[in-house]
Amino acid sequence: MSTVSQETIKATTVYTEFHPRWYRAPVSVYWWLGQRQYLKFILRELSSVFVASFVVITLLQLRALLGGPAAYTRFEHWLQTPPAIVLNVISFFFVLFHTITWFNGDDGSFLPAYAGDVNAAASSGAVRSPESGSVSFALLQQSLRAGEHPSLPRSLIVDAEEHLRTQRLREAIISLGTACEVASNEYLIRTGRESEPQVGRILSRRESFAEKRYHLLTDYLSGRSFKNEDLPSFEFVEKTYRTRNSLAHKGRLCFDDAGTVIEVDQRLATHFLAASEAAINWVGGI
User: Fold this and answer.
1) What integer best gives the mean pLDDT of the chain?
2) Which residue among 34, 129, 193, 279 is least enclosed by CB atoms within 10 Å?
């Protein structure tokens, strides 16, 4: 670099004492007071302090009882003082609010348990989920000695059930969509007619996954249709696969229903689980 260029750079370079930063509007510490849902959340958390105060007062009352009549009389006199009355009144309303929000957090209804070997309902606190039946240890040993791999679609259903119980909805939807697709492929291989031109034409049609795999294809090969025999489950399988595609291509846990975007929650995913298991059982039996 020439001397002239160096002098030019030195002359045009301006240094400041402080590094410039983007402007950020100041936010008040009490911003949550202006938003009802956040105010309710803060009050719900704060109510725990008054719940604890009730516990402390109860423990002090027990201590006074153990101390005899004189100690309990002094405790009763303290409860009648203005500070104690104010504390108890405030605590009562906060404990009442705490109790109401506690019960409102769970409507008490079980998630729909899917048809099949269901003998229990597992509860993880506020969220209840279905649980399929158990298997005997003898049958487990027999399966291990046979050295046969379990059915892949059924294994994926078990994975999806476990994912739902642990609130991993995305993994559950992927497992369910894959289970339905693998079960359909296994059915096609069992028929030995996968190379027929009409089969290729059905699979290449611009139809939905369930329409092609669980209606048109099975109707052509076996004269049966999951759509005709179990329409509600068929529709849930279709929504399951739409959600699976949305996850795979957009990363969103939702599906499009006649132009309306439906977000998939725990309850809807449980319906998907029931329908997917019904679908693979159905296609496995034809």
Assistant:
1) 81
2) 34
